[in-house]
């Protein structure tokens, strides 16, 4: 039960992970990127997304992430459509009660 509660608190996100790195984009009511070096920081405590030493890693993972999104028909515009739908449904629910 606790895991269900904690999962509900995680912001909407998508990402890509390799054996060494993890790149995550949080969206919806936030626009935040995180990059972790899992070898140096297995607990994911140090976000290195804006660290110039990791720019090449960030760029290459972003390219791979976009390839995967295209492969599965996912995109930022699709996410925006889903979010707009969710907001509409939420408003309908709020208006009913």
Explain this structure:
Helix content is 46%, strand content 18%. It is α+β, with helices and mostly antiparallel strands and 97 residues long. Strand 1 (13-17) and strand 2 (21-26) form a beta hairpin. The two termini are 27 Å apart.
Order of helices and strands, N to C?
HEEEHH
Derived from helix and strand composition plus strand pairing, the structural class reads alpha+beta
Tell me roughly what share of residues is in helical segments.
40-55%
Rg measurement, Å: 16 Å
- What's the number of extended β-strand segments? 3
Strand content: 15-25%
pLDDT < 50 stretches? none
Mean pLDDT: 83
Order of strands side by side in the largest beta sheet?
Answer: 1-2-3
Q: Characterize the largest beta sheet: strand count, sense, and whether it forms a barrel.
A: 3 strands, antiparallel
N- to C-terminal distance:
27 Å
- Total helical elements: 3
> Based on CA inertia axes, which overall geometry fits?
globular
């Amino acid at each position: 039960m606790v895991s269900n509660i904690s999962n509900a608190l995680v912001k909407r996100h998508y990402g890509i992970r390799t054996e060494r790195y993890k790149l995550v984009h949080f969206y919806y009511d936030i626009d935040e990127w995180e990059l972790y070096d899992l070898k140096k920081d297995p607990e994911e405590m140090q976000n290195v997304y804006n660290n110039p030493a990791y720019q090449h890693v960030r760029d290459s993972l972003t390219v791979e992430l976009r390839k995967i999104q295209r492969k599965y028909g996912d995109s930022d515009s699709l996410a925006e459509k889903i979010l707009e739908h969710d907001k509409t449904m939420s408003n309908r629910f709020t208006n009913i009660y």
